[in-house]
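User: I'm preparing a small set of examples for a lab meeting where we compare how different chains pack in three dimensions. I only have the primary sequence for this one, and I'd like the structure in token form so I can line it up with the others. Please keep the answer compact; I'll paste it straight into my notes.
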Amino acid sequence: MKKLLFLFLFFPAFLVAQKTTILKGTVKNSLKQPIEKVSITFGNKGTETDENGNYSIRIPIDTEITVVFSHVSYRTLTEKIIANNRNGIRFSPILSLKTEELKEVVIKDNKKEAQGITKIDINKVKNVVGPNAGVENILMTLPGVNNNNELSTQYNVRGGNFDENLVYVNGIEVYRPFLIRSGQQEGLSFINTNMIQNINFSAGGFQAKYGDKLSSVLDITYKKPTETATTIDASFLGGSATFEGQFLNKKLSTITGVRYRDNSLFVNSQQIEVNFRPKFTDVQSYLSYEFSEKFSLNFLGNFSLNNYNYKPLSRRTRFGTVANPLELIVFYAGQEQDNYLTLFGAFSADYKVNENFTLTTIASRYNTQEEEYFDIAAQYNLGEVDANIGSENFGEVEFSQGIGSQLNHARNDLDALITNFQVRGSINKDQKQWTFGAKYQKEDIRDRIREWEVIDSLGFSIRPPHHAGNNQPYEPFEGEIVPFQNIRKDNNVTIQRVSGFVQFDQRTFWNDHEIFYNIGIRAHNWSVTGNGIASKNQTIFSPRAQFAIKPNWEKDMLFRISGGLYAQPPSYRELRDFNGNINVDVKAQQSIHLVTGMDYSYQMWERPFKLTVEAYYKNLNDVNAYTVDNVRIRYRADNAATAYAYGLDIRLNGEFVPGSESWVSVGYLKTEENINNRGYIARPTDQRIKFGILFQDYVPNLPNLKAYLNLVYNSGLPGGSPAYADVYQFQQRLRDYRRADLGISYVFTDANKRYQTGWLSNFKELTAGLELFNMFDIQNAITNTWVRDVYSKTQFGIPNFMTGRVLNFKIGMKL
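Assistant: Understood. Below is the structure token output for the 815-residue chain.
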């Protein structure tokens, strides 16, 4: 009986063993080093290599199978195997690094590092998770770059504001709309992620070849396609489609992208109940035609339409302390209807005179037509909340401190046309380069402002601060009733600019040490006419220099220093004061920059890492002080301030997880201004502490399942001040900004994992995943709403909270 039982239990296993055999071996790299955690799969079976690179897996006999060897750091290897006997098969493949071709470029090309330019991998931009996925989203994780508004694509760099950043696409400067006053109105960034080839970013101390701004440069290069492909992305927030290809015997290359965005998923997570359905649409195209090896003609075009229809219904916000909680309840009537239409077109021609001399000419035109119409009435009640736990009315408002209403009205129209023509050239010879250029630009702005605000408290209209007081009902008042704020202006302004630059670069050696340096100077002349007033011409000069040395040390280190006199001639937005008046004689803001830094590249855990440290100081004169309301900047337009900024930025990036680059960044900043010699106070962008993490990971046994974590901490910004108030009396700060976004995606197929048969063979790339925005549901504030206390006459700053936790599903494919 025991023998029969033994045969009954083990005979089936014996039959299976007769039909299978063992495939085993050792997986190594090109250096003959074993590779750990290589995934070996066929069909629905699989295993992985141990720490010595060894593996073992049972396969069928007399059946052809396809075995796949995959690892996140190495190219996937596919091998067809047939086992003809039961004695086992040994197969030991050699895997090649995915980054082999890139490493040679990264190690040898130190030019960008010497110039203080951060080069961002486009694949990181596509994978990073955030409410506004794209280039700007990844910039927020860098030290020195801040923004506490996740619905905005704008950013502050080292104490500067949104208007102090240069953005180029293929050498063509791009602009942002004028009237937008909140992040949820912005919609889409100009930059289409699926069209990008290269991304370069400088946070300060940049070269003379870049334009006249005070803070940063974002230099984007759109790609010239080498294949025909269609990329489609879709999610609950919208979608995009991008087509690229070559035609006419590969002389014509074109890439065109269409995008649609809907932010209602985010807005519905805020504390204000609204009827809101925004529509943001964008069509963008880049074409390039090569007439010959020496001459090519390019075109960049963009059409953008943002329709913003906003109807607030109610709001309930609790704030204050545990001992003294307060609650604001607001009921709204009315709506806001905004329309932003942007048209942009640019032609550029590249001519290679000879192997050392290249010329580029660019002609572009930008037109923005903006309408901002709203009538919104708000009735509010500000009350004290019963904080007594034993009370029957615990958590309810028991005493009203402020009751009132306000009515906001606007019929604002703006039409801006910006035309420019520029010529640039470069001469290269013997590791020396001369770069030069000249540009003419004309800005024609027509601005119609009809905006007023009436504030009522207990039935009495509150008058502006500069008018006589209203002491009703104790004394009769027979004066004119005026709105608290009333702006009625028609501004027709023309700005003409002529600018140019010359710059010299050289790479040389001092003994065995590699040296990089460049010196250059910019000149900018402009004049402003409008509203019957003509200004005199103004001219500024901006000398700049950079120096870097890469010592011939055993350790891979690079040291650099850069600086100069940077100037920002005023744009139309900087010429217009709080009341809509134009001051045509506003001077250029000027800043002396000094930036020092070092890069240290090293190996840790046998993987590449890089530590970047930069310290900076800015001394600013003729400062045009401003206030920030959400993303709207309102200037004083009087150059009545001086300011300074200094700080330290640290960034560590590398393969914390094998094959996946991540980074950690820390920044410290202090920036203050002195308005009319009244003493130094914090500037609106005084973001003291910055901490950011971009982390990428994958499941070891399932490397196609990937995770992305985007974490940002910013210390609190100054909370602003009410209209017409003295900013020196309102210096309290908002709460700290803390946010964590998590993304999980599965790669069905990509360049490293292609299928020859089945439904996946129709795709070049296919991914799907989930995004969890604000995963800890933290309430972050962007600005304050100011409400008056009828008894004490004080004004309370009620925080305007941003978005809560939101779950999004997305899918991406390339055909």
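A couple of notes for your slides: The first strand starts at residue 20 and ends at 26. The CA atoms of residues 576 and 582 lie 5 Å apart.

User: Perfect, thanks.
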